[in-house]
Amino acid sequence: MKFKLDENIGQRGINQPKQAGHDVSTVLEQGLTSASDPTVITVCQAEDRCLVTLDLDFSNPLQYVPSEYKGIAVLRLPNRATIDDLTDAIQTLIGGLQRENITGNLWIIQRGRIRIYQQSE
After folding, report:
1. Which helix (H) or strand (E) holds 110?
2. Mind listing the pLDDT tens digit for each residue in 98-120?
3. Helix (H, G, I), strand (E, B) or coil at 32
4. pTM assigned to the model
5. Closest C-alpha among 50, 100, 99 to residue 75
């Protein structure tokens, strides 16, 4: 799977997916820091990458229709999150990819739990 880590995750979340064999790039590496949400998702779409973000705006399936993208993974961390919370959420994402395909879907990921948005036909 090819991932794009949003700027709110940055370099902190890059190692786990890479170690699991995924192709990972970041918004920071591409100089897209402070780019608008539509710009970031358009770049993901052009690069055929799944967006991994903490930005709740991407959890709105009316604004970002999941079927139009390689996948959108929104990590939901607790208030006052630690690096361990981020690590656990990314590990949950990686584990979920072993069972399900995120392509065309919106996943809301919490520690040990993935909610998959089911788009109605």
Report:
1. strand 106-110
2. 999 999 999 999 988 999 997 76
3. coil
4. 0.93
5. 50
Average pLDDT value for the chain: 93
120-to-10, 34, 47 alpha-carbon distances in Å: 33, 33, 26
pLDDT in tens, 1-49: 999 999 999 677 899 999 999 999 999 998 998 899 999 999 999 999 9
Q: What is the mean pLDDT of residues 74-92?
A: 94
In the numeric block, the tokens 């709105």 are attached to 60
Query: Encoding tokens for residue 76?
Result: 């939901």
* Start-end of H helices in the chain: 15-19, 37-47, 83-97
For strands 23-26 and 72-75, give the pairing.
unpaired
> Is 121 a residue whose pLDDT tops 60?
no
Q: What count of other Cβ atoms lies within 10 Å of the Cβ of residue 7?
A: 17
Between strands 50-53 and 23-26, the pairing is: unpaired
For tokens 């948005």, what's the residue?
A: 117
